[in-house]
């Protein structure tokens, strides 16, 4: 449920419609939306911004929908389908929008089923099945099911944002397909709205039941009569048996073979009963709109291990797959040289990769085994090693991921494969359009080699990843489809692939569906007779061609509606911060390929605002889509600096999580920095933004002698109400109090210390100097106890408050001052230790964007570390001479967003463990305060909702004796505000362990 997004039904922002995609809606569509609104009162959006948000998925396509509808329940969904039939308006049911073939975009009214229709309806643990609504995302579903020891078998890589409607609609599978097969192998029943809006329930029919169904009136009866006649025809059965690809891993076309006895293009035993639900699987929303799905479940494996087999050549690895399969693994996944290289360049994935990959192999095959005991798994891996050796397989190494943590590393890297490949800078990208093909594993090496040779003959490289065990290697040619010559390669390469597949007995699509990428090849691949039957199926279910038209049958050419094309161009303006590494501001935005990992809600930090609003607009993908549309002319040029665009980016809290958690490394925090600079240039800088950016100067004036007066004022209820009304600072918050004795005063007036010769610079930030000097004092005393002379740089501010408010010139001035003050220390090799993650890490991130031509920034960044990094490094080197007097005991750790994005919380855990802490980290995402964000009145509810997701409940549940630790000042204030618990900075925690009596 979305509690925060104001409804914008029929609101239009655009004042000019420069492209055909934004032409006024047809009259029949306007009439449809008006009648639907009157009948349901639901959330219906037809403004240009909302349509842009749903114009892309994870494919190479972009199609502007007619409108977007968010049905709140089954009745509203039925009304939408029924009225669409009445008005002749095409519709498209959509879940997470993670489709790679373009079937989740169309010139139709989109029904987003993830917002509200996402419930688990019933779980039967005895019979092992579950009933769900189509908007239920797979990972949250499995988390619930695992409490019963069960799970849904197929596991697509997009499981943390892909919903069951799309998984069944595409007939998905995943890494364990050799065990669990396809989604269609698990679907039992579906509740469906047919193309005329009537309701039907499809499930297995016992003897005599089919005859009864054919006697029904209406469209359901017609479907049963005509479909039964179609598949019972001896001629048609022969066509289906002979022309359906015999490869078991297939989701292309319609699943007529599952209604014909004796057709064996799939692995699992055929249910002899007639079940139209099997036909709905893989139909991509073109036969009906599912409102309920019943699927069978499988037992969660007791134990698993993963053998990572290293190879120096790709051909050798692929040739080894049949041999590996002889040892009965449950999965064999490929990570190729390009993916390994890209992985090493992204901090979030470089660490996990190094835990299971040795040296620099060309590729690895991640081979999983499951069992019921460690001894059984040990025997299986030993058998694998022996079998590889006896068969002469040229593996260079075999590492093993035995622990759950190591296995999580393997699957994290594997599932990030798609996005990692898409993180390449520039206009050449590895594109999905032939990547879903599968061949018998004995032909896999030759198929891949021939595709690679053909593409190289066209001047294009290729990248690979995925399901070697099933003969499905996701092959992605690197193309620049902003050039006409490169666009022309798309059908050329596709034609060559189809020819090879037919020769090898492969499948055109094996898990991602047909969509716009492959539907146009259907007649050529399946032959005119089988394709004719597919067309007939579509006519039976959808005689007026209103359900996701143009997919599977009657498809347009694959080069229509490309997201980029030869006519794609952007409006470029001078950039305020440096985007040279991304090759320009627009290309930084174009790094978003639409995979939608920012829509996940089960772990990590990205994207905090989406996690609580569940609104596409508040995902990183949504924001990137809108900005790209403004730059490229899909939206009017003036929209780029409009209030509506500002609203779309307003809930981006600049947490930087996308910089690390998005495999494509979309840095929305940096993008918003640039956007705000452009927006303020046109619209002026609001007073509150100036006020918040001016906090460093105000802190100097307010701390010290003025502190009691200022603190009294900002705590006064009447003053807080006035600030709420005048400045938009929430009356529910108390602004941070100022110290009567700032840290700099304490540092200057304290007794002099005897020099030790070992120096360290304490990068004393504004917050821990003027608001919380106790943190800086604790850090100073810990560092001195460790034998260091503590120096202060005398800088003004790192620039973080100005950066968060888009005030580039002021931020650049602050950054320049920092460089001037810190460069002499860095040149001497003196460590620069910071306490506030967002401040210190500015020296390792934004300083390069603000001062790209200053050579000193590199040296400063090299020597700048967080307090926890510094202590952890000394601990690792066994050079920290500190005597812990009192162990911390249980510690609950919350990591700062910037810390998690750029450093990770490993050093924090190591430092706290050194101080005797039994550390438990909360997978809390963002605390919600995010600097000034949580103090701003219009953001208070969202801020609190972010904290209430996991962090605040975890703190409340912690024992009173547990030490709560968070490095960020904002985080500590949010926890204090939401729970009343005192929170320590890691420096304070270590100080407490060293000096328990102080």
TrEMBL record:
Coiled coil: none
Organism domain of life: Bacteria
Keyword Lyase: no
GO biological process assignments: lactate catabolic process
Domain FAD-binding PCMH-type: 61-300
A Pfam family of this chain: FAD_binding_4
Co-factor requirement: FAD
Ranges of residues in domain 4Fe-4S ferredoxin-type: 643-671
InterPro entries (UniProt xref): 4Fe4S_Fe-S-bd, 4Fe4S_Fe_S_CS, Cys_rich_dom, FAD-bd_oxidored_4_C, FAD-bd_PCMH, FAD-bd_PCMH-like_sf, FAD-bd_PCMH_sub2, FAD-linked_Oxase-like_C
Keyword S-adenosyl-L-methionine in annotation: no
One MF annotation (Gene Ontology) recorded for this entry: D-lactate dehydrogenase (NAD+) activity
Name of the protein in question: Anaerobic glycerol-3-phosphate dehydrogenase subunit C
């Amino acid at each position: 449920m979305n509690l925060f997004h104001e409804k914008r039904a029929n609101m239009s922002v655009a004042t000019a419609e420069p492209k055909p995609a934004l032409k006024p809606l047809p009259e029949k569509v306007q009439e449809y939306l008006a009648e639907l609104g009157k009948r349901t009162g639901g959330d219906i959006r037809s403004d240009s911004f909302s349509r842009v948000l749903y114009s892309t998925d994870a494919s190479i396509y972009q199609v502007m929908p007619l409108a977007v509808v968010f049905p709140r329940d089954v009745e509203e969904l039925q009304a939408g389908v029924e009225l669409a039939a009445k008005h002749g308006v095409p519709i498209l049911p959509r879940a997470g929008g993670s489709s790679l073939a373009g079937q989740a975009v169309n010139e139709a009214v989109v029904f987003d089923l993830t917002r509200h229709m996402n419930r688990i309806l019933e779980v039967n643990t005895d019979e092992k099945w579950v009933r769900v609504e189509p908007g239920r995302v797979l990972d949250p579903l499995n988390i619930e099911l695992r409490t019963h020891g069960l799970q849904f078998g197929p596991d697509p890589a997009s499981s943390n944002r892909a919903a069951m409607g799309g998984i069944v609609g595409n007939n998905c599978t995943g890494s364990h397909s050799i065990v669990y097969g396809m989604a269609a192998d698990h679907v039992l029943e579906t509740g469906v709205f047919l193309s005329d809006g009537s309701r039907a329930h499809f499930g297995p029919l016992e003897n005599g039941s089919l005859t009864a169904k054919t006697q029904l009136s209406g469209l359901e009866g017609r479907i049963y009569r005509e479909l039964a006649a179609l598949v019972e025809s001896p001629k048609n059965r022969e066509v289906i048996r002979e022309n359906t690809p015999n490869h078991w891993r297939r989701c292309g076309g319609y699943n007529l073979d599952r209604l014909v006895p004796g057709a064996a293009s799939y692995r699992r035993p055929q249910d002899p009963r007639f079940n139209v639900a099997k036909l709905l699987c893989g139909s991509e929303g073109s036969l009906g709109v599912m409102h309920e799905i019943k699927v069978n479940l499988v037992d969660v494996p007791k134990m698993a291990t993963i053998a990572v087999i290293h190879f120096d050549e790709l051909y050798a690895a692929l040739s080894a797959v049949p041999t590996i399969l002889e040892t009965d693994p449950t999965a064999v996944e490929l990570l190729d040289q390009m993916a390994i290289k890209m992985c090493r360049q992204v901090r979030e994935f470089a660490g996990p990769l190094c835990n299971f990959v040795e040296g620099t192999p060309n590729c690895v095959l991640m081979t999983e085994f499951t069992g019921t005991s460690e001894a059984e798994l040990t025997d299986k891996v030993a058998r694998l090693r022996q079998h590889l050796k006896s068969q002469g397989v040229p593996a260079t190494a075999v590492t093993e991921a035995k622990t759950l943590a190591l296995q999580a590393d393997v699957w994290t890297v594997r599932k990030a494969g798609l996005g990692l490949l898409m993180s390449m800078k520039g206009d050449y990208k590895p594109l999905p359009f032939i990547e879903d093909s599968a061949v018998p594993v004995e032909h896999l090496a030759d198929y891949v080699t021939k595709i690679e040779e053909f593409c190289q003959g066209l001047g294009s490289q290729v990248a690979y990843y995925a399901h070697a065990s099933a003969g499905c290697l996701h092959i992605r040619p690197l193309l620049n489809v902003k050039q006409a010559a490169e666009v022309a390669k798309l059908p050329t390469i596709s034609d060559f692939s189809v020819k090879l597949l037919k020769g090898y007995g492969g499948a055109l699509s094996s898990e991602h569906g047909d969509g716009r990428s492959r539907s146009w090849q259907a007649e050529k691949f399946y032959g005119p007779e089988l394709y004719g039957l597919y067309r007939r199926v579509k006519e039976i279910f959808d005689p007026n061609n209103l359900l996701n038209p143009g997919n599977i049958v009657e498809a347009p050419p694959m080069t229509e509606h490309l997201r980029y094309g030869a006519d794609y161009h952007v409006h470029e303006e001078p950039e305020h911060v440096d985007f040279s590494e991304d090759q320009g501001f627009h290309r930084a935005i174009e790094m978003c390929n639409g995979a939608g990992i920012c829509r996940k809600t089960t772990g990590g930090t990205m994207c905090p605002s989406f996690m609580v609003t569940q609104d596409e607009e508040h995902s990183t993908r949504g924001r990137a889509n809108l900005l790209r549309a403004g730059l490229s002319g899909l939206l009017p040029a003036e929209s780029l600096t409009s209030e509506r665009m500002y609203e779309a980016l307003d809930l981006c809290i600049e947490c930087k999580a996308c910089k690390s958690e998005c495999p494509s490394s979309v840095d929305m925090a940096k993008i918003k920095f640039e956007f705000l600079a452009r927006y303020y240039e046109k619209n002026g800088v609001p007073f509150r933004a100036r006020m918040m950016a001016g906090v460093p100067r105000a802190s100097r004036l307010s701390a010290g002698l003025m502190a009691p007066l200022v603190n009294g004022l900002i705590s006064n209820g009447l003053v807080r109400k006035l600030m709420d009304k005048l400045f938009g600072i929430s009356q529910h918050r108390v602004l941070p109090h100022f110290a009567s004795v700032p840290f700099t005063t304490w540092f200057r007036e304290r007794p002099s210390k005897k020099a030790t010769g070992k120096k360290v610079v304490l990068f004393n930030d504004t917050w821990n100097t003027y608001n919380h000097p106790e943190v800086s004092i604790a850090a100073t005393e810990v560092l001195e106890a460790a034998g260091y002379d503590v120096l202060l740089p005398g800088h003004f501010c790192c620039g973080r408050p100005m950066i968060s408010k888009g005030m580039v010139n002021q931020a650049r001035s602050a950054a320049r001052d920092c460089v001037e003050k810190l460069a002499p220390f860095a040149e001497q090799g003196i460590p620069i230790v910071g306490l506030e993650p967002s401040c210190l890490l500015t020296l390792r991130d934004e300083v390069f964007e603000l001062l790209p031509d200053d050579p000193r920034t590199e040296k400063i960044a090299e020597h700048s570390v967080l307090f926890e990094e510094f202590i952890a490094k000394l601990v690792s080197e066994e050079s920290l001479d500190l005597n812990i007097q009192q162990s911390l005991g249980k510690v609950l750790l919350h990591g700062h967003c910037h810390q998690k994005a750029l450093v990770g919380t490993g050093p924090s855990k190591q430092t706290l463990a050194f101080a005797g802490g039994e550390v438990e980290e909360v997978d809390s995402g963002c605390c919600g305060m995010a600097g000034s964000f949580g103090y701003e009145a219009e953001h208070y509810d969202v801020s609190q909702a972010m904290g209430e997701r996991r962090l605040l409940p975890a703190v409340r549940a912690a024992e009173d004796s547990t030490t709560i630790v968070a490095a960020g000042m904002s985080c500590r204030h949010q926890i204090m505000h939401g729970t009343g618990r005192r929170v320590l900075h890691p420096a304070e925690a270590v100080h407490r362990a060293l000096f328990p009596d102080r």
